[in-house]
Amino acid sequence: MAVGNDSEAVYLLDQVVMQDPIFKNACNALGLALEADGRYQEGLEAYSRSLEIDPKWNQPLINKIHAFWALGKNDEAVKILVRV
User: Fold this and answer.
1) Which CB contacts under 8 angstroms, 24+ apart, belong to 43-49?
2) CATH code of the domain covering residue 21
3) Residue 53 lies in a domain
4) Is the pLDDT assigned to residue 4 strictly greater than 90?
5) Considering the entire predicted model, what is its pTM?
């Protein structure tokens, strides 16, 4: 992602998640890469997976806010803001 190759980052992080599906940081990073690649809905799904692994971790929630805003789903973003 740092060199602007978001699709390659998605591919590599997807490989990591397939190898270790309970690696919450990889799921969250996959969400970030998907979002950077313009794939916001898929990013939301990756963030949700990360939250299933660790429901108390707030970073994926914050990332979901950004994805919801990008999709124009402001109500969903505000619901998260109220919880965090």
Assistant:
1) 43/67, 44/68, 44/71, 46/17, 49/17, 49/21
2) 1.25.40.10
3) yes
4) no
5) 0.92
